[in-house]
Write a structure and sequence with these properties.
By secondary structure, the chain is α/β, with parallel strands linked by helices. The chain is built from 12 helices and 7 strands. Helix content is 45%, strand content 14%. The chain has a 5-stranded mixed sheet, sandwiched between helices. Strands 6-7 form a two-stranded antiparallel ribbon.
């Protein structure tokens, strides 16, 4: 019935419409038939399909009449999306505010990441002290996008507690006469300083306890003392350490890697000093170790200390004079300085 009315009423009326309007309607209907013939469960419109309907909307007032496979609001949405894309492309070609220097951006991001409690005003003030200008809006723009709560790194956490941690260990040195000497080293984790060392041929718990008193006189005792489970640390030693207010932290059995700083120190002493000398007696060993400790503290750079020595060394510019060479540890190592002419 509907098709009959369409043929009797609508088709004769279409003869009275302008020729170009009929051409537009014919194009729209043919396009929809083509889209429906695509072998898909739901017709998928391609970019050129959208462009066709956007053009028809502009040039044909009655573009809504033949629509069947989508709503008029869909065409309007396509046109608005195209409008936004056009102006985004056009705006990108225009030069706006000058961009910030790449090194400044990297510095801002670095400050955000390593200073979790800082805000944009604090970073702005710090940049101003460096002679760099950046607004708080710019600093917030380059803030790292992370959902995690601000937190310090494990490295920072350990460095904040390194000043209250000391470590100790024994190592054995054979002499030329096959005699065994025991060397005790006590070091502080903060600057890798050797706070005390001593040599004996018969270590006891009482002797070791006295060495701890010598290493930390008055109020210099650390909060924690890291050591292994050697039987040489007897009850006398334990009572003395507890009386000094030091908390002992014992590593697991046969796990020297849990006391890494002092183990690395012992390895450095062996590789850089004792493996290259012949030890005659206790007095000579103590003298050699004293010279090495002097070199270790004032000349030897450490990667964990930003390539500085435990006792910081100043950087000498070429203007300070020529380079001179000073032998240390009996000539096994050298220190290089600049001396004014």
């Amino acid at each position: 019935m509907f098709e009959f009315l369409r043929m009797v009423v609508i088709y004769p009326l279409s003869l009275l419409r302008p020729q170009h309007e009929l051409a537009m309607e014919n194009l729209a209907l043919r396009h929809q038939i083509t889209a429906l013939k695509r072998r898909t469960h739901r017709p998928k419109l391609r970019p050129w399909d959208r462009c066709l309907w956007m053009i028809l909307k502009r040039v044909w007032p009655n573009w809504r009449t033949p629509l069947m496979i989508f709503r008029p609001e869909t065409v309007i949405g396509w046109q608005r999306a195209g409008f936004r894309m056009f102006w985004r492309w056009k705006s990108s070609r225009r030069r706006g505010r000058p961009g910030k220097d790449r090194k400044l951006i990297q510095l801002i991001r670095r400050m955000w990441s390593v200073n979790p409690t800082w805000g944009s005003p604090r970073i702005r003030d710090e940049l101003a002290k460096l002679g760099l200008q950046a607004s708080t809006a710019t600093i917030r723009k380059y803030r790292p996008r992370s959902r995690r709560l601000p937190s310090q790194s494990w490295r920072t956490f350990l460095q904040n507690h390194a000043g209250g941690i000391a470590a100790m260990d024994f190592f054995v040195v054979p002499t030329v006469t096959a005699r065994l000497l025991y060397v005790l080293v006590v070091m502080n984790h903060e600057r890798r300083k050797i706070v005390h060392f001593n040599v004996t041929d018969a270590p006891t718990a009482a002797w070791t306890a006295q060495q701890i008193i010598n290493a930390f006189p008055y109020d210099t005792a650390p909060e924690y003392l890291l050591r292994d489970r050697d039987s040489i640390y007897g009850s006398v030693f334990v009572q003395r350490v507890v009386g000094m207010g030091i908390k002992q932290k014992l590593i697991s059995p046969r796990s020297p890697w849990q006391n890494p700083y002092v183990e690395r120190l012992v390895g450095s002493i062996r590789r850089e000093c004792l493996d290259r000398v012949i030890v005659l007696n206790e007095r000579q060993l103590r003298r050699v170790l004293e010279s090495y400790v002097e070199y270790y503290h004032h000349a030897r750079p450490h990667r964990s200390l930003d390539h500085d020595s435990p006792v910081p060394r100043p950087v000498e510019s070429p203007d300070c004079g020529k380079v001179i060479e000073l032998p240390l540890v009996g000539g096994l190592h050298h220190r290089y300085l600049r001396q004014a002419a």
